[in-house]
Amino acid sequence: MLKARRTSMWKSRYEISDGDTPITVWEGANWSIGGQFELDGHQYRVRANGWGTRYKMTDERDMVVAETERAGRKHWKVVTGGRTYEFTRDSIMRGSAEQLMDGDTVVGRVRRTSSWRGDFDAELPGLPLPVQIFVLCLIITNWNAAAAAAA
Prior knowledge:
Blueprint: E1 2-6, E2 13-18, E3 21-28, E4 34-39, E5 42-48, E6 54-59, E7 64-69, E8 75-80, E9 83-89, E10 97-102, E11 105-114, E12 119-123, H1 129-150
């Protein structure tokens, strides 16, 4: 299970671990939607369109690794390596959980574990690790943007 722990109240910076083992740090962009992380010596960059509904993750060669449309909607998809993964929001209220679906069956989930600190965890079996981090980070980005807009 991936865990994202916010490391700064002033920046969108999260330490991501696999269980208790730190594996990367998500650095959210300051003036745009997206961010970056490094995993196993590879750099990944996440960028969004102006509305924050379409995201692409690229590697250090600027090759698209994964992309999504309608991120943050009730139903949305991630495409990577020729496969499509479907997600749905757990409830009509934002910030509850996002579920990875296989047909009508929930097979994984991303959820906020601490509203005060802004921590998250993700269980996304079957997705490659960089794509799991991509999904986790875009959910963090969307939920943080929604919280900022509501404030």
